[in-house]
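Final report, Chapter 2: Outcomes

The project's central promise was a pipeline that accepts a single protein chain and returns its three-dimensional structure in a standardized token representation, suitable for archiving and comparison. That pipeline is now operational. To close this chapter, we reproduce one record exactly as it appears in the project archive, with the input sequence first and the structure output second.
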Amino acid sequence: MSRLQKHQQKKFATKIVSLIIILFFVIYFIFTVGFRLLLNVSAFIANLTSKKQTNQTVKSEGVYGSIYIDSIPTATNSSKIMVGGSVVNLSTVEFYLNSEKVKEIKMNASDYFSEEIGDLKKNQNTVYIRGKLKDSREAKQSKEFNVLYKPDKPKLEVKEPADKSKTSKQEIKIKGETDKETFIKINDFPVVVDANGNFEYTVQLKDGDNSFTVTAEDIAGNVETKTIAVTYQKED
């Protein structure tokens, strides 16, 4: 073997050893600093692509992951609600209602959840979730959500006209009162409700009997309905 060949062979062997050393350090970096960095980048990207960026979690030292609530009602007429969301690099999810833990579920490293929780108290409730890694005391917490529990039907009072009344006017006004933050429909037509809960709607009567269904629906989905009958009779 010539000197040139020996020199080239030695140079090639040196390159192989250098590549092996570099590869070793790359693998070491990935499984130490790089792995944590990758998790943080993944959590950041998940946060950017999330439909609700307001669910950004509170940072907790030592926990590399994210937790989000994606779906939760703002108001309900049921004492139980569904809470949906997702986690990244967390194995346990705890559900809190009015600062008390009401449920705990096990998760995969990255997964979605949809769980029913209760029992809500009447009026305002606070809901949030906490995520943990296995065998870790550190946790991440979602933002807090306010949920209104309103089991009762809204107030609905039709002041004018009186039920089963008669009139010689072809055009009349239906007037009434309801609760705030309540939607009114008269024969399926939306009616404006003012800040005090008052509403007014002008209708044209046909000859003879006329029937009007007044529907009140609040933000929690409770519905109250009243029907009034008015007879239109022209003056002789």
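Archive annotation: The first strand starts at residue 66 and ends at 71.
This record, like all others produced under the grant, will remain available to the consortium after the project formally closes.
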